[in-house]
Amino acid sequence: MEFRHYLNIALKRGWIVILVAAVAAMAALGVSLIMPKIYEASIQLSVEPARPDWGLNQATKDLMRNYAFNIESHSMTQKAIDRAQLDMTTDQFLADLDVSSDSSNLTLTILTESRSEGEAVLMAQTLADVFVEDRDQWNQQIDQRDRIYINKVDDVRYPVLASPKWKINMLAGAVFGAIAGAIVVFFLEWLQSDILRSANDVTKAIGMPVLGAIPAGVEAQGAGRTRWGLPGWIEPGLVLTFGLGLALGATLGALVVSLL
Fold first, then answer.
1. Which domain holds residue 198?
2. Does 215 map to a domain?
3. Distance from CA of residue 132 to its chain's centroid?
4. What are residue 38's DSSP bridge partners?
5. Is 189 exposed, middle or buried (0-12, 13-18, 19+ CB in 10 A)?
6. Same-domain status, 157 and 241
7. pLDDT-derived band of residue 196, with 50, 70 and 90 as boundaries?
8. Do 11 and 105 belong together in one domain?
9. What is the distance between the alpha carbons of residues 165 and 45, in angstroms, rounded to a whole number?
10. Tell me: the pLDDT tens digits for 168-186?
């Protein structure tokens, strides 16, 4: 197929790709605006050995994952719930909690999510306070030279909007919509692949030169019907319906991707 033919298809059917992409992007924006907002708060803890000893430093690194495991325990989160008087269970708390450790710089990061900005901050701040106090009590039972101190780097200042991210949703919707529009164009071209559009097509099909052509005025008499004998408005309606359906599917796909 010649490049000129692809160009003609783009000029003739390109509006379908643009329309479906635009509808998908606007639908993604609309869904993003009505979705409940999820806020994210985080706090970092610094893990510091009592002395610059290689053995104690290695022991501290080995304990990093254990610290993260203890923070994400039911007992620790229950203490935070009781102190902050949160209306939730430990299972709900843990579902909105993520704790990560970084042994390269000896830090722990506590990240919490909630539909309330204040609650997200309270969850992260209280859990950090509870864990720091728990480690302080543990340090009182061992030799001062072997202690591992845990301190808050900073208090939680303000939460950030974690979801929905409408810009990413719109971009993903537009991309999926454009792909869906291209599929629609391919489908329409496939349906009309057996139509002879030019004299060259006729020559290639029958292997003989074209000696004449029907005037355009005569061809216009049948313009109100498609090649299936149906009214001409049915094909655009089919395109729009199929395109909008794919656009909605693409929007849902964009939202799923953004929430992963």
1. 3-35+164-206+227-259
2. no
3. 34
4. 163
5. middle
6. no
7. low
8. no
9. 28
10. 878 887 888 788 878 877 8
